[in-house]
Amino acid sequence: YRSKCMRGTVSIYNDNWGVEAAERVHLAQALRNAIESQGMDLALQPLIAMNTGKLTGFEALARWPQTDNAPISPGVFIPLAEECGLMPMLGRWVLQRACEMLQDVAPDSDLRVAVNISVLQLLDVDFVSEVLDVLTLTELPPERLELEMTENVFASDVEQIRNVLSQLREQGIRISIDDFGTGYSSISYLLDFPLDTLKVDRSFVTALNSGGEGIFSSIIALAHGLELSVIVEGVETQKELNSVIRLGGEEVQGFFFAKPMMLPELEGWLIEHRDTSFDIKQKFPFVS
Ligand code: C2E
Ligand code: MG
Ligand code: MG
Ligand code: MG
Questions:
Q1: Is residue 286 packed enough to be buried (19+ CB in 10 Å), middle (13-18) or exposed (0-12)?
Q2: Which of 10, 48, 50, 191 is surrounded by the most beta carbons within 10 Å?
Q3: Which residues face 178 on adjacent strands?
């Protein structure tokens, strides 16, 4: 394994690779600084119950604001953090900030926050106690925390992962599989692992516009057969929403309802929707 984070191990093959590597070193250093000095932020994106149209919680999404340039997307800095050993620090910050933000914007509610967890965090021996410490510190009930992980956890040390997930779930924390259908699941893992929710990847929603209904309903049936609830990710249009409502699932998330929002904007959004006590039926009249 050739680290792309350190000088000296690169630019052996060609100059382009060298330039890219130098940029990555620079970027990794900047990321470390941001994590260590309050330079990171978090956006929350609402999750909506399909049967009532009500807000049920949020997904927390890491943000790395830049002073002069456009923000760097998590699709870039999360893999960078993983490669450069920054994931434990970034992951811990995200987890704590997510719980704090939920307590800030929705104290004494049953709204939950879903936090993306890298497989590297799950393999850390201190992970379970770190999560429990954060819950204690922020006084958030475990039922209000959900941990999202992608199917690549099944390509890792499955015994250890199963063990960690069992400990978390015994505490009441919910576990979900993110981007479901794009990765490495086998049905036997879905049966064996202590899970609560499958998040159907946005690509299956996009496919609904071109005959993808069969596979979409099959995924819902599979999830329900395994007694897992379903969150449909990435609903952008009324047309997509109509299909999704017809095909089922417990919750939806997507730009159609709200994009991920950082604190000031999120507070505004909540004020607007608090009038209907988080009931968004009026605004999205798709429920009876
Ligand atoms: P994800 O966990 O699947 O998060 C959903 C992504 O879809 C988010 O992108 C969100 O902004 C985007 N999204 C939500 N609704 C829609 C929609 O209607 N249409 C479209 N086109 N996109 C929508 P984002 O924030 O850029 O994050 C990308 C990925 O980066 C996440 O995918 C997740 O895998 C990773 N990520 C973000 N924050 C964290 C974090 O704190 N920890 C870890 N380990 N990964 C994170
Ligand atoms: Mg996610
Ligand atoms: Mg996802
Ligand atoms: Mg994704």
A1: middle
A2: 48
A3: 150
Ligand 1 is surrounded, with C-beta below 6 A, by: 45, 61-62, 73-75, 78, 94, 116-118, 148, 178-179, 202, 234-236, 253-255, 260
Q: Which SS3 state, helix, strand or coil, does residue 179 take? A: strand
Q: Helix, strand, or coil here: 175? A: strand
Residue pair 254/233 in contact (Cβ under 8 Å)? The answer is: yes
pLDDT digits (tens, 9 = 90+) for 48-105: 999 888 899 999 999 999 988 899 999 999 999 999 999 999 999 999 999 999 999 9
DSSP strands (E only) in 139-254: 145-150, 174-180, 197-200, 229-233, 251-253
If one residue of 73, 93, 116 were mutated to test the ligand 1 pocket, choosing by the most ligand atoms within 8 A of its CB, it would be 116
CA 177 to mean position of chain CA atoms: 9
pTM: 0.92
ipTM over 0.85 threshold: yes
